[in-house]
Design goal:
Helix content: 25-40%
Shape: globular
Strand order of the largest sheet: 1-2-3-4-5-6-7-8
Keywords: Cytoplasm
CATH class: Alpha Beta
Main location: cytoplasm
Number of strands: 10
Subcellular location: Cytoplasm
GO molecular function: copper ion binding
Pfam family, one: CutC
Order of helices and strands: EHEHEHEHEHEHEHEEEH
Strand content: 15-25%
Length: 254
């Protein structure tokens, strides 16, 4: 296939919808509402049972920055090993040093842990890339580490704003690293960015908000994020994925 349409999902329902809409692979995470964290292994196993698409698994132990403690790193190493051993097509990782460089040594250890379990396990560098000090230096480090894919918005709040850097990254990456465009991706954005950036890989959640089926609602008691209703649930919209897939099919297949 000439293109990639990766759906970011954090539930079985979203995975099913994304596959029905025509996604080519999943990035599986937990807690998408906070940018994603490492998914529960039982969620991973259930998605494997229900769906046939390749699963790329996010490894992120918590919300926040990408400078991790020794305990957090130990956990990440164990997670990488487990998911690689249990059928993940790729692990999605990223670590930075205090001065904003890609943490080469820690990344190398995580990659080694994954490929010790499965030599064919692919590696995606996630959006830690978007907050690193020097994207071009990070790209070269990623190449040297054997990273297969970099998920990026072009170091901007959205991929539309990051289009100039994305274009340069695609050019510099060539055939060595896949530049996977994310942040604000939908069918219209894909249509606009394809001829500009030269990219062929896009990452989206295609989310819609469902109203809770709770009939009794105690308002004003937030359980995590003030300002976000506890009675709204994010799910992938199969139609949004299908619209994006149609744009890609038309552009690459005709």
């Amino acid at each position: 296939m000439k293109f990639v349409l990766e759906a970011c999902v954090d539930s079985v329902e979203s995975a099913r919808a994304a596959q029905a809409g025509g996604a080519t692979r999943f990035e599986l995470c937990g807690n998408l509402i906070i940018g994603g964290t490492t998914p529960d292994p039982f969620l991973f196993s259930r998605v494997q049972e229900c769906c046939t698409l390749p699963i790329h698994v996010l490894i992120r132990p918590r919300f926040g920055d990408f400078l991790y403690t020794d305990e957090e790193f130990m956990l990440m190493e164990q997670q990488v090993s487990w998911f690689a051993a249990h059928g993940a097509r790729a692990v999605v990782i990223g670590m930075l040093t205090p001065n904003g460089a890609l943490d080469r040594d820690s990344m190398a250890r995580l990659i080694e842990a994954a490929r010790a379990q499965n030599p064919d396990c692919k590696i995606t560098l996630h959006r830690a890339f978007d907050v690193c000090r020097d994207p071009f230096a990070a790209l070269e480090t990623a190449k040297e580490l054997g990273v297969n894919t970099i998920l990026t918005s072009g170091q901007a709040a959205s991929c539309v704003q990051g289009a100039p850097l994305l274009t340069e990254l695609v050019h510099r990456a060539g055939d060595t690293v896949e530049i996977l465009i994310g942040a604000g991706v939908n069918a219209a954005v894909i249509g606009n960015l394809l001829p500009v950036t030269g990219a062929h890989a896009f990452h989206m959640s295609g989310k819609r908000t469902l109203d809770s089926q709770m009939t009794y609602r105690r308002e004003g008691v937030p359980m995590g994020l003030p300002g976000i209703s506890e009675f709204e649930i994010w799910r992938t919209d199969a139609q949004a994925i299908a619209q994006a897939r149609q744009v890609l099919d038309t552009y690459f297949v005709g």
